[in-house]
Amino acid sequence: MMLVMSDLDDKNKELKKRLRELGAEVSDDDDEDEDDDDYDYDDDDDDAIESNQNMTDNPISFKDKVVIITGSGGGLGKQYALQYAQRGAKVVVNDLGGTLGGSGSSNKAADLVVSEIESKGGIAVANYDNIVTNPTGILQTAINSFGRVDILINNAGILKDASFAKMTQKQFEDVLDVHLNGAFKLTQLCWPIFQKQKFGRVVMTASPAGLYGNFGQANYSAAKLGLVGLCETLAKEGVKYNIKVNAIAPLAKSRMTETILPPDVLNKLLPEKIAPLVLYLTSDIVDSSGSIYEVAAGLFAQIRWERSGGLYLNPNKSFTPEAILNKLKDISSFDPSTTEYPTQLNDYNFVYSKTSMLPENSQGSIKIKSLKDKTLSLKK
Ligand SMILES: NC(=O)c1ccc[n+]([C@@H]2O[C@H](COP(=O)([O-])OP(=O)(O)OC[C@H]3O[C@@H](n4cnc5c(N)ncnc54)[C@H](O)[C@@H]3O)[C@@H](O)[C@H]2O)c1
């Protein structure tokens, strides 16, 4: 059986144009010799397809879908790769194969996952590119091997933990580079393809450390919450193209957590328990977009922003620190009758029309200490 690339040529050309705009070197050989780019399945692949067709009797199927999973040579990503392949997806198993801190590289991790998928009759290809320095290589592997991309799981990650006082700029930037900038680069490369085909699914891998903070992980927390913001915005921009973008904050056993949690706890937090949510969030039928899910040990819980009913003050000259202090309780009161769960910017015009009509603000009885003799430094 042969999947001919010619009907994918237009998409391929557009991708090449995009890759060139992004500074990548893209060869034209395949334009000249179409046969080089044909994806030839051999007999084993036929068996694989048959067995996958049986598996695609599941209501959620990924038959004919191509999924890129970054950092899927181990840990959570490997489990996603196995489960996507089991449901008929063609999987790009990307992994740099470095250490937890991001140094070194090896083909072994990705190769082993591909072998495991193939031994079970699935379809996968390995890619060893570093998401930071060669995201285009990852996408090229998907296009060259399978002719398309439908789903992107931004999962690759490293750790460079240090308390904030001791954290170097390099430790901070390296972690942001892999988690946040890497996800940005590859998602942006896939985006025009998703727009054109009116289908795309993206998962950003955030973390409870990003949502709540965690000692020693200022770099990691910043990157992970950055991914949540990226997810929320892309979900809005993706609406008219049927591109759904969600974020997960998982906790599971992997080399990342094995020094943090005791083995008896970790053994209950298996990485394969994260995969079902990821598969659902990238299926044809998913409604959710722009949502955040905390997931661990069989718990699947959506996280959302909550705004207290809040305090409305007239922004005139009676709008002072004392006026706020006087009503501090209102600012932080999450009374269920007045709280809201915002998913977009507030209507600030409406807010102003409401606050500007309010009477003078009471200054209360508590006085804020004078700042006399204190030095205030204002940096430009
Ligand atoms: N395990 C947890 O409890 C947990 C909790 C919260 C978030 N996460 C996130 O889940 C994701 C997967 O983590 P994991 O626990 O499976 O750890 P892991 O170390 O097993 O997996 C991360 C993979 O990413 C690969 N990688 C690192 N840098 C790369 C790069 N520049 N290019 C390509 N591949 C690269 C690594 O080689 C590794 O195989 C990470 O984003 C992590 O931050 C994990």
From TrEMBL:
UniProt feature, compositional bias: Acidic residues: 26-49
Region (Disordered) location: 21-58
MF terms in GO: oxidoreductase activity
GO biological process: intracellular protein transport; vesicle-mediated transport
Residue span(s) of domain Ketoreductase: 65-254
Protein keywords: NADP, Oxidoreductase
Coiled-coil intervals: none
Family affiliation: Belongs to the short-chain dehydrogenases/reductases (SDR) family.
Name of the molecule in the record: Unnamed protein product
